Amino acid sequence: MTSAHPGLIDRYGRRAVDLRVSLTDRCNLRCSYCMPPEGLPWLPKAEILTDGEVLRLITIAVTRLGVEEVRFTGGEPLLRPGIVDIVAGSAALSPRPRLSITTNGIGLARLAVPLRDAGLDRVNVSLDTIDPERFAAIALRRRFQDVIDGLSGAAAAGLTPVKLNAVLLRDVNDDEAPALLRFALKHGYELRFIEQMPLDAQHGWSRDRMVTADEILASLTTEFDLTPDPAERGGAPAETWLVDGGPAKVGVIASVTRPFCGDCDRTRLTADGQVRNCLFARGETDLRGLLRGGAGDEEIAQRWREAMWGKMPGHGIDNPRFLQPTRPMSAIGG
Fold first, then answer.
1. Staple partner for 66: which of 7, 110, 203, 322, CB 3.0–4.6 Å?
2. What is the pLDDT of residue 333?
3. What pTM did the predictor assign?
4. CB contact at 8 A, 29 and 87
C-alpha cells in the first residue's frame, strides 16, 4: 500500500517538503570525520545525473510533490560546473522554491554574486575551527583563508543569513565552542553545532568519542547566557537558543542524543539519481533508471511517493542492531 496523497507523505504522517540534492560526491577537502586522507573512489561520470536530469527531478519535486525548499549539497557542490545554471533553472520554477547551498566555502568568494543573481537565497558554510593550523589538521588542506573569504563574499552578496556549520571533535577542537560563537557574533553569522554522526567513510565513529549537545551547551554557557528560542522550531533540525537575550541565536543539531525524526520533513536525492528517505537509510530508490528509460513525470513522481511512504519512524542509532549506511556522507549529501 502507498499513500494516495499527492505529496511526499509517509505512514507516520510526516510530509517531506525539503529536498536535499547532492550535485557531486567529490570534495576538495579531506575532513577526518568524513573521508580518509587518500579520498574515495568517485562516482563515474556516466552515473552522475546531467544538469538537465537534475533540473527535471527538481521540477517534478516542486510542481508535483509539494517540495518547497531545495538545498544543494555534495560532496562539495561548488565543484559542479553547472551549479549556477541549475540554481537559475530551479529559481524559475512556479511555485518558486527556497534555494540554499551547503558548502565548505572554497570558491564561494568567486561564485557568491553569480549564484545570488541566479536566484540562490542563502548559504550554509562548514567551519569547524577559527585556527588555521587546526583547520589544516582537520581538513588536510591549507584552505582556511579561502573559507573566510567565501564567508565574507556570501555576506556581501546578500546570501543571508549566512549560517556556519561546526563539528566538534574530541581532543581536536572540542574546546573551541565559545571562540566559534564569538567569531559568528562578530561577523553576523548564525552558528550551528552538529553532533558528529556515524556517516564517515572509514566507519570509525564512536558514540563514546562524540562531543554531545550537552557538552557543547555547557561549554558555551561558560561565556554566554543562553535562553531557549521561543520561535516555533517546526521541522528544523537545529534546536536554537538566544544568545545573551538575543537577537543573535546559536543552534545545535543533536541528531544522535536528541533525535528529531518525528518532525523530519526531508527527502534526499544523490548525485547518481537515487532517492533516500532518511539520511541513515540502508536502501535507495533509483530514479536515474526511470529518467533514462523514458519514464514520464508522473511515473517518476509516483515512484518517489512510494519511496517516501516506506520511511522508518526513526534512524535507530540507539538500537544495538543499527548499521551505518554503506554510503558515507560525502556520497549521500547533507
1. 7
2. 66
3. 0.91
4. no
